[in-house]
Amino acid sequence: MRQKPNAAGLIAALDTPDAARAEGWAAAVAPHVGLVKVGLELFCAAGPGVVGRIARHRPVFLDLKFHDIPNTVAGAVRSVCADRAAAPAMLTLHGGGGAAMIEAARRAAEDTLGAARPAILAVTVLTSFTAAALAETGVAGGPAQQVLRLARLALAAGADGLVCSPQEVSRLRDAFGGAPLLVVPGIRPAGSAAGDQARIATPEETAAMGADWLVVGRPITGADDPAAAAAAIAASLPR
Ligand SMILES: O=C(O)c1cc(=O)[nH]c(=O)n1[C@@H]1O[C@H](COP(=O)(O)O)[C@@H](O)[C@H]1O
Q: Which positions are catalytic residues (predicted)?
């Protein structure tokens, strides 16, 4: 899914260790979302085969946030792209893994799947980080500055897009224009609990700032009716 949606679209994060539950959610939200996200919890519990099963409902955003030496990440990308029929439409790696790692990931995806390769998305600063938590890791200057720094590096190294919080979307659009895919978690409809997310905004605000894809987990999967929750968020986005 390297092409950009015409208007901001929705991605449902299927965070559960239960593959049957995840498949049920995928089927229920499919009419309202562009992609569904398979993350570490589901992948580690259910194994790689879950990607193909979930992909029967919607294209899969495989969020394993690779961060290792270039050779190892290239191998991981080849592994998740090996089965063409079950290959993800998008995948994540950490921008902090550096330019050589990102270049190696892109090359591995191209070598394995050619034009059908997944979009490579670089995670910048996790949406759970405050400025204080980021400073504890040795990064001064705050999330916005670090997001811009990693974005510049990742896009120059061949990433198709970035994962950032709603609070950096406008700055990234100003700096890099409309081309990079901006995939944005930390989305909270008014009144829903932030949980462990620190840098958040509503779906309407995030779409208006120029996000391409909004990643929403618990506000959908924790709802009594996940399909209705996904439908309501999708309907709130400008068309
Ligand atoms: O890469 C991601 O998708 C991601 C990056 C990030 O900075 N923050 C973040 O929350 N995510 C993912 O987005 C989803 C957000 O879920 P909720 O907080 O439940 O809406 C989770 O599956 C996270 O793993």
A: 63, 65, 68
